[in-house]
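Response to reviewer comment R2.3. The reviewers asked that we include at least one raw input/output pair. We reproduce the pair for PspC domain-containing protein here without editing.
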Amino acid sequence: MKKRLYKSSTDKKVCGVCGGIANYFDVDPTVIRLIWVIFTLVGGSGLIAYIIAAIIMPDEM
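Raw output as returned:
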């Protein structure tokens, strides 16, 4: 069985990107969200990456 990366439809705050990444790597979504916030605050690239991921990642079915 092949793992696929999808936006989460059940564990989402904004678009489900962090929830989907957490499901893919089998970690707590809060950890992914904290890492994403750190990237956003440190260099600002986290916000751009989140927007791109929200557009590119397919929705969970």
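The chain has a mean pLDDT of 86. Residues 30-56 form one domain. Further pairs are available on request from the corresponding author.
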